[in-house]
Amino acid sequence: MSLFSVLSISASGMAAQRMRAELLVENLANSETTRTPEGGPYRRKDAVFESAAVTSPFASVFDSEMQAGGVAVSQIVTDNRAPERRYLPGHPDADADGYVSFPRINPAEDMVDLMGASRSYEANVAAIGAVKDMIERSLDLLR
C-alpha cells in the first residue's frame, strides 16, 4: 500500500464523518420541529457507513496485492418510529385532544455522537499529517 493510498483512505473517512456531522447538526436544529413540508414532525436521520474501495491517482504495484479500503456513506436512514406526543393544548399544531407530535430526538445523545464524529474527523486529519511528514522525509532522503 502506497502512502498516497493512505491519503485517499483518510480522505474518504473525512468525507464520511463530515456527512455524519451534517446529519447530526440537522437533527439538533430540528429537534423541536413539529411541522415539515412533508407533513408531521421532523424525522431523525442517521448515516450508515460501508467499506468502500479507494482509488488513488498514484496507484502502486502493491495495490494489486493489498486491498486498500476506505469508508463511504451507503445510505441515510430516516427514523420511522412514532413521534413523541406532548400535551400542549395551546400549540398551533395540537390535535383535537391537545397533543402535539414532536421528533424522537435526544439532543444529549446527538451531541455525544457529534463529538465522536468530530474526533474521528480529527484522527483522519492527524493521519494525513503523518503521511505528509513521511513523504517529506522520503523526499529529503532522496536529495
Mean pLDDT: 89
Strand-and-helix sequence, N→C? Answer: HEEEEH
Distance between the terminal alpha carbons, to the nearest Å? Answer: 24 Å
Q: If helices are DSSP runs of H or I spanning 4 or more residues, what is the number of helices?
A: 2
Helix share bin? 40-55%
Number of domains: 1
Task: Please render the helix and strand layout as text.
Blueprint: H1 3-29, E1 45-53, E2 69-78, E3 84-87, E4 99-102, H2 107-142
Antiparallel strand pairs: 1-2, 3-4
Helix pairs in contact: 1-2
Task: Please describe what this structure looks like.
- This protein is α+β, with helices and mostly antiparallel strands.
- The protein has one domain (3-142).
- It is built from 2 helices and 4 strands.
- It has helices at residues 3-29, 107-142; strands at 45-53, 69-78, 84-87, 99-102.
- The strands form 2 sheets. It has a two-stranded antiparallel ribbon with strand order 1-2. A two-stranded antiparallel ribbon has the order 3-4.
- Helix 1 (3-29) packs antiparallel against helix 2 (107-142).
- The longest helix has 36 residues, at 107-142.
- The radius of gyration is 22 Å and the shape is elongated.
- The protein starts with a helix and ends with a helix.
- The mean pLDDT is 89.
